């Protein structure tokens, strides 16, 4: 068995930026003792107009669960104050599922025997035409993490095609250097989302056994490199259920908070994914992260960073998604297919995980309206 690389050491070609943010976030997470917070701390946090990191920590603590109703009400007030009644709609498009990483919880991992596929430029265009016909104006492009099979030029070309059909283009691909992000931005990409998965570097090492993704600090600084590359917005997420979800949620919030302080112009977004079953492993689940805990995390993000966008994915069921957009989430996916080539009806490759909400765009659109909310296809205009 070959010796594994040090997960804290950069590999050749990885850009190193001068920042101590990683140390700040990890120190804050390691010092976070959520059991020390009391009812009084939670009430104090809710009484503040602007939350401190300490208030955020209190809202994520077990002591806050009995106050979930009050927390949700406060989150709803903040959401309506800053976003009105609007709920943004988008869909993800998986253009390749080749991956060079061995992440034991992911359906795309390089040792999982699934159908691998990669769309050609022509096939990407066909997929995008099918999606654009639904009325959506925002798309998120995803690949497995393989520089060999999905190089920067391939992803940049996909961004350029997307810009012909959509007003907002996001990417959720392997972490890149700032000059590579600049290339994607020049070809039409607006924002970058990167899941840190877990901020516990020791646990991270045991979950990511091979590939570039094994390098913890390079992944951590991806959002900052994306901003340096000119991206308008960046998204953050921990995959809740991989490790202690309270510590991971706290670290995610602190990461976004510190980056917002450093780059006030950057648009910040959160995703709140929970573990889902994958092909060849239906036992994967988010353990102690049930719907009340997920609601607690999402509302804490909203109250701590009221201007941030919050996406609710199809990993969650229709009922939960319908409810959370009334409270704190501001962006929802619709018409989702997590396989390769599924939007045009010619699926070539297998899915990354099982979805829970199969509704099409019209069904989600109507559900938003039925809640008294306004579905928004695009909230950004280039002049």
- Tell me the β content: 5-15%
Number of helices: 14
Distance between the termini: 56 Å
Tell me the overall shape. globular
Order of helices and strands: HHHHEEHEHEHEHEHHEHEHEHEHE
In total, the number of strands is 11
What strand line-up does the widest sheet have?
1-3-4-5-7-8-9-10
Helix-residue proportion = 25-40%
Query: Can you tell me the residue ranges where pLDDT is under 50 for at least 5 consecutive residues?
Result: none
Structure description:
The protein is α/β, with parallel strands linked by helices. The protein is globular. Strands 1-3-4-5-7-8-9-10 form an 8-stranded parallel β-barrel, surrounded by 7 helices. A two-stranded antiparallel ribbon has the order 2-6. The relative contact order is 0.18. It has helices at residues 21-30, 39-47, 53-59, 68-83, 121-132, 152-165, 178-186, 201-207, 216-220, 222-228, 245-262, 291-304, 318-327, 361-370, and strands at residues 86-96, 102-103, 138-143, 168-172, 191-197, 208-210, 233-238, 267-271, 309-312, 331-333, 374-376. It has 14 helices and 11 strands. Helix content is 39%, strand content 14%. The model has no long low-confidence stretch (mean pLDDT 90).
């Amino acid at each position: 068995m070959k010796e594994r690389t040090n997960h804290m050491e950069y590999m050749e070609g990885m850009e190193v930026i001068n920042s101590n943010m990683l140390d700040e976030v990890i120190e804050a997470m390691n010092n976070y003792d959520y059991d020390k917070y009391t009812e009084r701390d939670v009430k104090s946090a809710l009484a503040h107009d602007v939350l401190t990191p300490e208030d955020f920590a209190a809202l994520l603590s077990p002591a806050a669960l009995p106050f979930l109703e009050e927390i949700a009400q406060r989150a709803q007030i903040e959401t309506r104050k800053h976003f009105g009644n609007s709920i943004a709609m988008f869909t993800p498009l998986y253009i390749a599922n080749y991956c060079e990483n061995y992440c034991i919880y992911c359906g795309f991992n390089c040792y999982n025997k699934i159908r691998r596929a990669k769309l050609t430029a022509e096939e990407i265009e066909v997929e995008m035409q099918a999606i654009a016909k639904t009325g959506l104006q925002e798309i998120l492009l995803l690949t497995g993490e393989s520089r060999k099979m999905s190089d920067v030029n391939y992803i940049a070309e996909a961004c350029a095609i997307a810009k012909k059909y959509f007003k907002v283009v996001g990417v959720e691909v392997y972490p890149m250097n700032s000059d590579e992000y600049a290339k994607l931005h020049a070809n039409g990409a607006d924002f970058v989302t990167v899941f840190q998965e877990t901020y516990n570097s020791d646990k991270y090492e045991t979950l990511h056994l091979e590939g570039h993704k094994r390098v913890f600090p390079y992944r951590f600084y991806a959002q900052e490199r994306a901003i340096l590359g000119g991206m308008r917005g960046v998204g953050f997420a921990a995959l809740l259920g991989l490790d202690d979800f309270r510590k991971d949620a706290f670290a995610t919030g602190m990461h976004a908070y510190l980056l917002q302080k450093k780059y006030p112009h950057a648009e910040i977004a959160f995703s709140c994914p929970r573990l889902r079953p994958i092909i060849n492993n239906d036992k994967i689940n988010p353990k102690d992260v049930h719907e009340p805990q997920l609601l607690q995390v999402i509302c804490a993000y909203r109250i701590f960073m009221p201007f941030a966008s919050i996406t609710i994915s199809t990993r969650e069921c229709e009922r939960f998604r319908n409810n959370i957009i009334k409270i704190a989430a501001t962006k929802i996916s619709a018409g989702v297919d997590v396989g390769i080539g599924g939007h045009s009806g010619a699926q070539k490759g297998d899915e990354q995980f099982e979805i829970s909400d199969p509704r099409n765009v019209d069904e989600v659109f109507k559900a938003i309206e039925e809640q008294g909310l306004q579905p928004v296809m695009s909230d950004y205009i280039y002049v």
